[in-house]
C-alpha cells in the first residue's frame, strides 16, 4: 500500500464493554488495500464482536473506524454498497435451491441479474448443486453459498467471519482456492477472521493478531514469519 492509498479497513482505539465485561481493549489496526488479510486470534478473543462493530451492527463504547475511506457507522449505507459480508452462519431457506436463495436474498438489497447469480455459483463451485435444496447442502456447501451471497454485488471488500468453520480439510482447501481466485480476478480486498494459524498462513498475505480484545501484532505474513517485524 502506498502512502496515498486508502486502507481497506482502519480501526483506532476500539473499546467495547458489555456490562462489566470488557471485550475489546483499545483495538487498533490497518488492513492495506488489495490485501488478503487474516484476523487471527483464539475463540473468545473478540474477533466477531470487532467485525460486528465494524459493520455497524453494534455501537462501540469508544473508538473510530473506516471502511474503504468511509467513516463508520456514520457512512454505513454508502460503505455497505461496496462491501460483501458473511458474519456468523449464513441464513438461507432450506426448501429453496441454492440458485433460488441467491436470487431471492440478493435482490432484497440491490437488483441482481440471473447471469450474475450463475457467475457467482460457478465461482464458488456450486453450479452442479445450484438446483438442489439448501437443506441438503453440506456444511462446506452452505458456507460457500454464503460467500456467494457476499459476492453478488461485486464488492471492493469482503469481510468474512470464520468462513471455513466446520469444514473438513478438503472443504477448507476449496474455500482457499475460491478466495485466491476472487482476489486474483477482481483485485478484491479480503478481511477474514479465523482461529486457525495454518489457514492464515496458507491463504493470507497480511495478518492482524489479537488476543483478549487487544492487538498483539500486525503486518505482512512473510515478514512476520521471517522475523523481520
Query: Which structural class should the secondary elements be placed in?
Result: alpha/beta
- Beta-strand content bin: 25-35%
How far apart the termini lie comes to 17 Å
Helical proportion?
Answer: 25-40%
In spatial order, strands of the major sheet run 6-7-8-3-9-10
Number of helices: 8
What is the element string, with H for helices and E for strands? EEEHEEHEHHHEHEHEEH
Shape: globular
| Average pLDDT for all residues | 90
- Count of beta strands: 10
Computed Rg: 17 Å
Question: The biggest beta sheet, please?
Answer: 6 strands, mixed
Model regions low in confidence, pLDDT < 50 over at least 5 residues? none
Q: Describe it for me?
A:
The protein is of the alpha/beta class and 229 residues long. The protein is 33% helix and 28% strand. It is built from eight helices and ten strands. It has helices at 47-54, 76-80, 98-106, 114-123, 139-151, 169-186, 197-203, 221-226; strands at residues 9-18, 21-31, 36-40, 62-67, 70-72, 83-86, 157-161, 189-194, 206-211, 214-220. The chain has a six-stranded mixed β-sheet with strand order 6-7-8-3-9-10, sandwiched between helices. Strands 2-1-4-5 form a four-stranded antiparallel β-sheet. Strand 7, helix 6 (169-186) and strand 8 (189-194) form a beta-alpha-beta unit. Helix 3 (98-106) crosses helix 4 and helix 4 packs across helix 5 (139-151). The radius of gyration is 17 Å and the shape is globular. It starts with 8 loop residues before the first strand and ends with a helix. The mean pLDDT is 90.
